[in-house]
Specification:
With 134 residues, the chain is mainly alpha-helical. The chain has 2 domains: 76 residues; 47 residues, no CATH class. Helices cover 55% and strands 4% of the residues. It is built from 3 helices and 2 strands. A two-stranded antiparallel sheet has the order 1-2. Helix 1 runs antiparallel to helix 2. The protein is rod-shaped and about 100 Å long. The structure holds zinc ion. Zinc ion (ZN) binds next to loops.
Length: 134
């Protein structure tokens, strides 16, 4: 219901501004008919100006909210977009040990202690999941 609230606030600001402008036009036309062109136009443009200006803070709030959501989404990709549940990640990933003979570098699994080739995404024995940046 309150998802994407920033855009909802901006839409609300736009809709209420347009409703206000339509109201001002109707009121202005009514006053032109009743009291003459000068007062009618003065009230019409006065109300439009007030409605327009008073919509600024609401629109700005929407703008700030959407900007903050974007920042949050970009800094916390797994948490903010809600599309995927955050995966529990192992923090510790050991540095590979390069053998002196030039063969495939080895790592030692921090969970079970098995030594294996560094390019496995998981430990072949206990399935410990490494967390290297891709
Ligand atoms: Zn292991």
């Amino acid at each position: 219901m309150y998802d994407n609230i920033g855009n909802k606030i901006k839409t609300l600001a736009k809709i209420s501004t347009w409703i206000g402008i339509v109201f001002a036009l109707i009121l202005g036309i009514a006053l032109i008919v009743l009291l003459g062109a000068f007062i009618g136009l003065l009230v019409m443009f006065g109300v439009i100006l007030i409605v327009w200006i008073t919509s600024f803070p609401l629109y700005a709030l929407g703008e700030i909210t959407t900007t903050l959501s974007d920042i949050e989404r970009n800094t916390r990709p797994n948490l903010a977009n809600g599309a995927e549940t955050p995966k529990k990640k192992k923090i510790f990933s050991p540095a590979p040990i390069a053998p002196a003979d030039g063969s495939t570098p080895q790592i030692v699994c921090p969970k079970c202690g098995t030594q294996h080739d560094f390019d496995y995404p998981k430990c072949p024995k206990c399935k410990y999941e490494y967390n290297w940046a891709k």
